[in-house]
UniProtKB/TrEMBL annotation:
This is 5'-deoxynucleotidase. It is an enzyme of class 3 (hydrolase). One of its GO terms (cellular component) is cytoplasm. Catalyzes the dephosphorylation of the nucleoside 5'-monophosphates deoxyadenosine monophosphate (dAMP), deoxycytidine monophosphate (dCMP), deoxyguanosine monophosphate (dGMP) and deoxythymidine monophosphate (dTMP).
Length: 269
């Protein structure tokens, strides 16, 4: 059964200015009111038309939502021309291709690239639900799980989409479980890409309220290569705000967090 998220006020929705999730082409069934990102009412899940070609086309049209929906956190902070969900995933995929292999701990890099492109796929339906919206993690996961079920069983349920269906399901489930080295790497890429984008918006738009984005990302980075990227990035950020006479304020805003500072060491500390 669909899960209804407690509605946010119209004032909150307007402040977030989150784009609505448009109803995709195809047949849908009536359902109770369900809210997604920004408190927007979601369309009912897609139901198969019985025509594999039309169902496949519905999925291809649905993917446009990843291109046009903006990432909610940036909209909330007043970023102009904020990145889309697919912008975020595309850079992650390219970054995955840059990770060097460690012979002692080999990674399936092609799988990481695909996982980066799939990890936010459910947001094509539910939108980019952020922690500040107060949606419990298990509710967010169930909404996204329902979206994936609709994508894979109703849109891609035909025999001709068997390989695609299994591929999407395997990659998305692996990322959500966060148990494999590949899924942990992709989560690191998710975090560092967020930090990169935050610095870029600070630099280009002089936004002074993005410290929480760093607090929630850089302390959790585990991969050594990504940690080095982040350390260089944070030094670049320090120099940026020093040049604007706000180094102390911005450093204080980080609340003492540093790259990898919240990652548990092998001895459990």
């Amino acid at each position: 059964m669909p899960i209804a998220i407690p509605a946010v006020s119209s004032h909150q929705v307007n402040k977030m200015n989150v784009l609505p999730v448009d109803q995709v082409h195809g047949q849908v069934e009536e359902t109770s009111k369900v809210l997604g990102a920004g408190g927007k009412e979601l369309p009912a899940p897609y139901k198969s038309s019985g025509n594999e070609a039309l169902d496949t086309l519905a999925f291809l049209h649905l993917l446009e939502q990843l291109k046009v929906q903006k990432r909610s956190g940036w909209i909330r902070e007043g970023v102009k021309e904020a990145e889309s969900i697919s912008d975020h995933m595309c850079r992650m995929a390219l970054m995955a291709m840059m990770i060097p292999q460690d012979p002692a701990k080999p990674l399936d890099i092609p799988r990481c690239v695909m996982m980066a492109l799939v990890h936010d796929l459910a947001e094509a339906h539910v939108g980019d639900i952020t922690p500040v919206e107060g949606v419990p993690p298990h509710v967010k996961h169930q909404l996204e799980e329902q979206a994936m079920d609709s994508f894979l069983n109703e849109m891609l349920g035909g025999a001709g989409n068997k390989d695609a269906r299994e591929r999407f399901r395997s990659l998305w489930d692996e990322y959500e479980a966060r148990e494999t080295p590949e899924s942990k790497l992709v989560k690191d890429l998710d975090r560092v890409e967020l930090a990169l984008q935050a610095v870029e918006y600070e630099r280009s738009q002089d936004i002074q309220s993005l410290s929480p984005f760093f607090i929630g990302s850089i302390p959790h980075l585990e991969n050594p290569t990504i940690q080095k990227w982040a350390e260089t990035l944070m030094e670049e950020r320090r120099q940026l705000w020093a040049s604007r006479g706000r180094e102390k304020e911005e450093q204080d805003g980080l609340q003492g967090v540093t790259v990898g500072s919240k990652v548990k060491k092998p001895n459990g500390i």
